[in-house]
Amino acid sequence: MLVSKTPLRVSFLGGGSDYESYFRQYRGAVFGMTINSFVYTSLLELNDISKENYRFTYRKTESVLSPSEIEHPVVREVLTSMMISEKLNIATMSNVPGGTGLGSSSAFTVGLINLINGFQRQHLDPGELAELAIKIERTVLKEPGGLQDQIFAAYGGVNVIEFSADKYSVRKLTIREDVIGEISEHFALIPVAEVRSSSEFAAKTEQNLKNNLKFRNNMSDDIDFLLKETSGDRSFDTCGELFEFISRCLNRSWETKKIIYSPSELRLFEEVENRVIGLGASAFKICGAGASGFLFAAFPQKIQSDVNFRAEHPEWIFPKIEVKGSTLSEI
Asked: β-strand 187-192 against 88-94: which pairing, if any?
């Protein structure tokens, strides 16, 4: 059995500027990280005695004779484009539900492409993985959204991704290994309200990028700030320095995102905001394009090693930074 393990992501600043409709006109950049929550996808060849040629298990099981019969759009297009002739049993699972703003849909696409290529004994570098996932989701299936999720899932780590008219570049920040471990101690993901449709809110974000001048202006200021603060050989040698920078990015991002939410949507966060501020959080933002899912919060104190704090919040996720992108293993 072959298994792909692909990380989810949290973006700190610049989300929205990775939409093609934005960065083809303006400069775009996203700062974020991948975390130790994953989408796992497994593949096993079916015996010739099997009646079906392809079996795919997610929230339901599909058993079909041809890839074109598969209902799941990503699986259908990946298997069709890669001209798979072997009988395959594919299944997927994740630590975290989909649709919660952590890039799980694109992590699945990246992981599936990595898995099928590994099965065919072909190696793709992170750039090739990201490009194929972007092509499937944005060009072939025409799903709304940006490009950061596919890139983070393929590359992993703490990155600044810059977007221009027809290309992107990935810059891994220079951070000491001990600082990466220490900074994670300060993070929490806090569930907020119901799971939302990522495609629905991606389309909404795209409309705001086109029509909301204040949102675009704030976005432009955020990008200028991000690129100035990470220019040249900027490195983060202490946890305090990195924490202060991430906090500033989170606060800027949250102020920009609040522009596009309705009063009723903002009320969804009010109770959680007051709660996390009362617990000592210094910065936070909603994850992803929607008005529900997870609130990402940064605390000055090391909450992850505080046993009592963790016990008081059993529904929270306490993520660590994951430095690797999508990987393969054979069982």
From this structure: unpaired
Reduced to 3 states (helix: H, G, I; strand: E, B; else coil), residue 144 is coil
3-state class (DSSP) for residue 170: strand
Predicted confidence pLDDT, tens digits, the chain (331 residues): 999 999 999 999 999 999 998 999 899 999 999 999 999 999 999 998 889 999 999 999 999 999 999 999 999 999 999 888 899 999 999 988 877 889 999 999 999 999 999 999 999 999 999 999 999 999 999 998 999 999 999 999 999 999 988 889 999 998 999 999 999 999 999 988 654 555 666 666 777 777 788 888 999 999 999 999 998 878 888 999 999 999 999 999 988 888 877 777 777 667 778 888 998 999 999 887 655 678 899 999 999 999 999 999 999 999 999 999 999 999 8
- Report the predicted TM-score, pTM, of the whole model to 2 decimal places: 0.93
Number of structural domains found in the chain: 1
Domain presence at residue 12: yes
Report yes or no on 294 lying in a domain: yes
Backbone angles phi, psi at 28, to 5 degrees: -125, 150
Token pair 């905001």 is found at 273
Q: From residue 183, give the alpha-carbon distance in Å to each of 23, 180, 245, 247, 300.
A: 31, 5, 11, 12, 10
Q: What are residue 55's DSSP bridge partners?
A: 63, 89
CATH of the domain at 117: 3.30.230.120
Q: Is 158 helix (H, G, I), strand (E, B) or coil?
A: strand
First-to-last alpha carbon distance for the chain, in angstroms, is 5
219 close to 16: Cβ distance less than 8 angstroms:
yes
- Amino acid symbol at 308: N
Q: How far is CA 256 from the centre of its chain?
A: 19
Residue 141 lies in a domain: yes
Structural domain boundaries enclosing 107: 2-41+98-329
* Residue 156 belongs to some domain of the structure: yes
